[in-house]
Design goal:
By secondary structure, the protein is an alpha+beta fold. It is built from 2 helices and 4 strands, in the order H-E-E-E-E-H. A hairpin with a 5-residue loop joins strand 3 and strand 4.
């Protein structure tokens, strides 16, 4: 949780990777797409159970800076 609380809109992809690690999946906008937001998806597994999933994501603007993020549902990870 502490790492997620360090996120700010001034961070770059490299900064976020350093804080949160590698994402589980990256969604890059395709050519000709009106939206130019790159989304990184993270997944946490409560109690190590692969069936349970606590998703989170970060979104980057076209300039490579962090645009927005959704933290994992911490109550599911407790």
């Amino acid at each position: 949780m502490q790492q997620w609380r360090k996120l700010t809109t001034q961070l770059t992809r490299k900064d976020v990777r350093k804080l949160l690690g590698e994402p589980a999946r990256v969604e890059v906008p395709g050519p000709g797409t009106a939206v130019s937001v790159e989304t990184w998806n993270y997944e946490y597994h409560p109690d190590g159970d692969a069936k349970l999933r606590a998703p989170a994501q970060v979104c980057f603007a076209s300039d490579g800076r962090l645009l927005s993020w959704t933290e994992p549902p911490w109550n599911q990870l407790a």
